[in-house]
Structures are given as structure tokens and as C-alpha cells.
Specification:
single chain, alpha/beta, Rossmann fold, five-stranded parallel beta sheet, 6 helices, 5 strands, elongated
């Protein structure tokens, strides 16, 4: 959704120095940064603006006195489900990272941020966005895991392979399945 081919990034961070750093790093890679806010309310309001509708990613500072990160992530997800949200934090805490990812964060970045790590994460959001557009309808249609009975195919060789796979699944041991591409 980049404007004029320039990907757009919203930065939600209460530290001015961090905002300048991330903005400068993004600009080097061709990103345009809009500063939504230091607080969640303004960030949510910005989503509805002309710039907010064209965002390609959000970077959210994990700690702020003005908002609860997981709640803000869920709110953003409810309004813009496909928008990548990258968490930037100075606290390398596994529990916080898991909570953020469960809330819908796309990636978790630690401060001090290495420029190449930030740019790789931003560029990955663009690549995933292009691929996700094709896959999203299928993932929305299939909400539960498929069982062996749900697999479609009538060739005797296929049904025999499926029977072997079903036996292996019951044994709960690792299995390597090989086949030609598209099979």
C-alpha cells in the first residue's frame, strides 16, 4: 500500500531519540515514517487517516506508560488484521515476547537495534505482505486442522500413502515425507 512506491511506517514510541534513529534507518532503505504518537489513542486515530490507510508496517515500543502493548496490538489487529506490527523493546523477556506474538505482533526486535536487523525485519514485512495476499483467503476458510478423512484423492497409490501416513501419525514419531513438487 505504499504511496508512490514508497513504503510507509508508523512509529509508536515515546523516546524522541529512538524515533529519530528508527526514522533515519528506515529512510535509508526507502521507507517513509509517520510519527503516530507516544500513546495508543493517537496511534489508533492515525490508522483512520489518509496516511494511516496506506501503512505497510508499524513499529511499536514495547514499554510505555501511556498504553498496554498487547491491548494496543489487539486493537490494531481488530482494525487492520493484515498490517505487520513489529515490537521494539529494551527488555529481552521471553514471556513478554510470547505475549506480544500471541496478541498479533509480527516480529520482536531488541534495543539497541542493529540497523541491518531493523531493515531486514521491515523488508520481510513487504515480502510477507505480497505473499500473504494470495494465501489469506485460504487460511481464513480453513479454521481447523484437516484430518486424514478431509484429504481429497482417489488414486490407489495416493490412498495407500495416506494410510501409511495415518499409521505414522498414531505412532507419534517423526516422519519425513518426500515427493515431487506439487504432489
Amino acid at each position: 500500500m505504499a504511496r508512490d512506491g514508497v513504503p510507509m511506517l508508523m512509529l509508536i514510541d515515546d523516546e524522541p531519540a529512538q524515533r529519530r534513529l528508527v526514522s533515519a534507518l528506515g529512510a535509508r532503505a526507502g521507507w517513509r515514517t509517520i510519527f503516530a504518537a507516544d500513546d495508543g489513542e493517537t496511534a489508533i486515530a492515525t490508522l483512520g487517516t489518509q496516511d494511516g490507510m496506506q501503512l505497510d508496517a508499524i513499529i511499536l515500543d514495547q514499554w510505555s506508560p501511556d498504553y498496554e502493548p498487547s491491548g494496543l496490538i489487539r486493537e490494531i489487529r481488530s482494525r487492520r488484521p493484515a498490517l505487520p506490527i513489529l515490537i521494539l523493546t529494551a527488555h529481552n523477556n521471553v514471556a513478554i515476547a510470547v505475549e506480544a506474538m500471541r496478541a498479533g505482533a509480527t516480529d520482536y526486535l531488541s534495543k539497541p537495534i542493529a540497523p541491518e536487523r531493523l531493515l531486514a525485519a521491515l523488508n520481510a514485512t513487504l515480502a510477507e505482505g505480497a505473499a500473504a495476499g494470495e494465501l489469506r483467503p485460504l487460511t481464513e476458510k480453513i479454521t481447523a486442522p484437516l484430518s486424514f478423512e478431509d484429504v481429497v484423492g482417489s488414486a490407489p497409490q495416493f490412498r495407500a500413502a495416506l494410510a501409511i501416513a495415518a499409521k505414522a501419525a498414531r505412532a507419534r514419531v517423526p516422519v519425513l515425507i518426500e515427493g515431487e513438487s506439487g504432489v
